[in-house]
Specification:
The protein has one domain: Vaccinia Virus protein VP39 (Rossmann fold), CATH 3.40.50. The chain is α/β, with parallel strands linked by helices. The protein has 9 helices and 11 strands. The strands form 2 sheets. It has a 7-stranded mixed beta sheet, sandwiched between helices. Helix 2 packs across helix 3. About 35% of the residues lie in helices and about 25% in strands. Helix 3 links the parallel strand 4 and strand 5. The mean pLDDT is about 90.
Length: about 280
């Protein structure tokens, strides 16, 4: 998808699903893969519906929400800014940034998440995927995707549309997992934990492939950062997130962004050229 080569190495197999790494650019992709409609159908009930489960989800994503809110507010100084969160889940990030004075909209194909964000939090949430909504050109000042890009059938097409609906000088923020190093580290135990969430993760990016993807879709001033970490419910993932996430953030700060520890989630920000019309 990124470099045009057709030479791949199988790095992980689960049932009929295989994750293959491109020998050219290093992008990891799932083959075969569910159809786009099969994934949409599955995502309608992807999020849990119970109050306790939603509370657990809120605690899990809380540190990432706080980190991302601070990052967006520091990098985007415009007043009365409008933000779109694609795959907004239950709307926790949207509600916080709305309370900070932003105009917000979300996209969520999962009904439990959409209902909670819309009815409980009072947010404007769209049920259709981005490509079906036809937003006006240069409509948003910021677009965010939290753990979404790895689920998308055609990331390049989606980000091209995101670029179109962003105003010149607008910011894109992506939060994404970096799972391949963890699979390597776990070796034969990787199937027990299935960090790729097979077959839902269609791609696994690294900082270089993410940079290439954003550059190819028209973005500039691309920067990958480490900060914030999730607090998963399962003990192994929670422990790993706290320990390695904390270590990664410490190393990132100590080296002024030069070291991006493999295997931990990354945040990438990029901008639309302010001179574009």
């Amino acid at each position: 998808m990124l470099c045009g080569r057709s030479s791949f190495q199988l790095i992980y197999q689960r049932d009929v699903w295989g994750y293959h790494r491109c020998r050219g650019c290093g992008l990891v992709a799932l083959y075969p893969r569910p159809t786009q409609q099969e994934l949409l159908d599955a995502y309608h009930t992807y999020l849990p519906v119970g109050f306790q489960e939603i509370e657990t989800w809120s605690k899990m994503i809380g540190p990432v929400v706080d980190y991302s809110l601070d990052l967006i507010r520091r990098r985007m100084k415009r007043k009365n800014s409008r933000l779109l969160d694609i795959g907004c889940g239950y709307g926790f990030f949207l509600k916080k940034i709305q309370q900070a004075g932003w105009q917000v909209e979300g996209i969520e194909v999962s009904k439990p998440g959409r209902d909670y964000a819309g009815k409980r939090l009072g947010l404007k949430i769209h049920a259709d995927p981005l490509e079906r909504l036809a937003f006006p050109k240069e409509y948003f000042d910021a677009v965010t995707l939290f753990y979404v890009i790895e689920h998308v059938h055609d990331p390049k097409q989606m980000l091209t549309e995101v670029h179109r609906i962003l105003r010149p000088g607008g910011i894109l923020m992506l939060r994404w997992p970096h799972s391949t190093p963890v699979v390597k580290l776990l070796g034969p135990f990787s199937k027990r934990y299935d960090v790729f969430h097979t077959p839902y993760h269609l791609y696994d990016f690294n900082p270089r492939t993410m940079y290439q993807l954003l550059q190819q879709t028209g973005f500039q001033d691309i920067e990958t950062l480490i900060g914030g970490h999730t607090l998963p419910r399962r003990r192994f993932f929670r422990w790993s997130s706290v320990v390695f996430g904390g270590l990664a953030e410490m190393m990132f700060r100590a080296t002024r962004g030069k070291i991006l520890l493999p295997g931990v989630s990354k945040t990438t920000i990029a901008f639309k050229n302010p001179c574009e019309a």
